[in-house]
Amino acid sequence: MAMTENFKCNKCTCQLPYFLPCEVSLHNTTKDCWVSYRGSVYDLTELCNLRKGHQGIELIIAYAGKDISHWSYDNAKEHVAFGESINSTVNNRPSWLDDKYMRGNLTKNARPCRIINVLTGTEAVILICEEDTVARIQERFLGFNAHGTSYTWKFEGLPIDTNCTLTENGIVDERERFLEAGLPDDTYIPAILCYYNDDLTEQ
């Protein structure tokens, strides 16, 4: 599985969830403030509450739900003008990059996933993270089908390993190839077929 580039952290980034940029963008208020920075996602809501009214917090709030990778720093000196309380460092990093605020990783590739319910004939195209395992994609799909875990997922007639990503299952993202050929990037989206197991899973 691809790993995001970020600072050394006590948390194992491979165990943290991956987020789409559009998911981070939903957290865009003072009461729910997330940002992404160099491939990592941080929840700065607590910091905004603790430092309410302090110099620099307004800038963080202004970028709530956005990527702030351009706020790079060198030797713990911010290129962005923060107040002293915000600019204080922890383990040679700004306090707003403290490990306790990290919630996960920002995907390196948001890709579409086409899922077809063989039983009902319905289908949906959802946006997923390249790094998502199929098990995680099944969790995302529960919003469309509460019994999503009661299905066996297959691609081209073969069962899919739910512990692996789509790419690791041989379902690659070919959008760049289509664009290079002068075709729309959604010319073809591989279809995953879902077969109902009839195990009476409760909603």
From TrEMBL:
Name of the gene this protein is made from: LOC107267598
Protein name: Cytochrome b5 domain-containing protein 1
Keywords annotated in UniProt: Cell projection, Cytoplasm, Cytoskeleton, Heme, Iron, Metal-binding
One of the Pfam families matching this protein, by short name: Cyt-b5
Domain Cytochrome b5 heme-binding, residue spans: 16-107
Taxonomy of the source species: Eukaryota, Metazoa, Ecdysozoa, Arthropoda, Hexapoda
UniProt function note: Radial spoke stalk protein that binds heme under oxidizing conditions. Required for the coordinated beating of multiple cilia maybe by functioning in a redox signaling pathway.
Predominant location: cytoplasm
Entry GO terms, CC: axoneme
PROSITE patterns tied to this protein: CYTOCHROME_B5_2
Taxonomy, superkingdom: Eukaryota
Family from the record: Belongs to the cytochrome b5 family.
Record localization: Cytoplasm, Cytoskeleton, Cilium axoneme
InterPro entries cross-referenced by the UniProt entry: Cyt_B5-like_heme/steroid-bd, Cyt_B5-like_heme/steroid_sf, Cytochrome_b5_domain
Gene Ontology MF terms: metal ion binding
